C-alpha cells in the first residue's frame, strides 16, 4: 500500500528526473541508484535502460519498497539490468560505478556529506555523481516545519526543505567538485534541479561527449 501511494504521488515526477540523468550516460554504464524505492521511476525509463544496456544496482533500506521494486523490474523487462539490494548507502562497498545517482534521496539522508564522499570512492576516475531534487528559493520557516511531517499523512518521507547553499556546502565538505547545477523545471518558489559532481582532480568526461566543467 505504501508503495502504491508513492507511485501515485511521486513516481510520475521522478520518472522525468531519471530520464534527464540516464540520457547523459554512455552505453553500458554501471550505475548505483541510491534509494531506488519502488523502482517505478526507473521502470518508466525501461526502454532507455535496455537500449543503452545500463547495469543498475538499486539500493534501498525499505524492504516493502524493494519488494515492489523487484516485481516492477520484472514487469518492465529490466530484471537483467537492475539488481535491487536491501542495504544502506553507507554500508555499500561494491563497484566501480560510472555513475552514482541520488534521485530525491540525497538530502533526506541523515548524513548527505558522508553519503557523497563514500559513494564518490566507488566511482571510476571519470565517473559522475548525479543528484536530482527540489530546491526552495526563499527561506520558509513554515515549510521547514511541515515538510518533515508530511510522512505522517502520506507515508512518504520527503526529507527537509533544501536550499541551494546546503547542497553546495555538502559537495564541498565531501571533497567532490560540483560541475553543474541545472534547473530542470522552475516552479516559482521552488525548482527541480540536477546536480552533477566529479571527484576532484579527475580528468575527462563520462563518455557522453558533454564538457565536464561547469
Ligand atoms: C523519496 S524516495 C526516492 C525514490 C526514487 N529514487 C525516486 O526518485 O522516485 C527516497 C528513497 O531513499 C531511500 N533511503 C533512505 N535512506 C536510505 C539509505 N540510508 N540508503 C539507501 N536508501 C535510502 C528511502 O527508503 C526511499 O525509498
From TrEMBL:
One of its GO terms (biological process) is methylation. One of its GO terms (molecular function) is methyltransferase activity. Keywords: Methyltransferase, Transferase. It comes from the Bacteria. It holds the Pfam family Methyltransf_25. InterPro entries: Methyltransf_25, SAM-dependent_MTases_sf. This is Class I SAM-dependent methyltransferase. It comes from Pseudonocardia humida.
Amino acid at each position: 500500500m505504501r508503495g502504491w501511494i508513492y507511485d501515485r504521488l511521486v513516481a510520475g515526477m521522478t520518472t522525468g528526473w531519471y530520464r534527464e540523468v540516464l540520457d547523459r550516460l554512455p552505453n553500458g554504464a554501471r550505475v548505483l541508484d541510491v534509494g531506488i524505492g519502488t523502482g517505478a521511476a526507473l521502470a518508466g525509463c525501461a526502454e532507455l535502460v535496455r537500449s543503452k544496456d545500463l547495469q543498475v544496482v538499486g539500493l534501498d533500506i525499505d524492504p516493502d519498497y524493494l519488494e515492489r521494486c523487484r516485481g516492477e523490474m520484472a514487469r518492465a523487462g529490466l530484471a537483467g539490468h537492475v539488481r535491487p539490494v536491501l542495504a544502506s548507502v553507507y554500508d555499500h562497498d561494491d563497484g566501480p560505478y560510472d555513475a552514482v545517482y541520488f534521485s530525491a534521496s540525497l538530502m533526506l539522508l541523515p548524513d548527505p556529506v558522508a553519503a557523497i564522499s563514500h559513494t564518490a570512492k566507488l566511482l571510476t576516475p571519470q565517473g559522475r555523481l548525479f543528484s536530482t531534487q527540489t530546491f526552495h528559493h526563499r527561506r520558509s520557516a513554515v515549510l521547514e516545519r511541515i515538510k518533515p511531517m508530511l510522512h505522517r499523512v502520506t507515508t512518504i518521507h520527503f526529507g527537509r526543505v533544501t536550499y541551494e547553499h546546503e547542497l553546495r556546502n555538502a559537495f564541498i565538505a565531501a571533497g567532490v567538485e560540483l560541475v553543474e547545477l541545472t534547473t530542470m523545471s522552475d516552479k516559482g518558489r521552488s525548482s527541480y534541479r540536477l546536480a552533477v559532481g566529479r571527484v576532484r582532480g579527475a580528468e575527462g568526461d563520462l563518455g557522453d561527449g558533454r564538457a565536464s566543467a561547469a
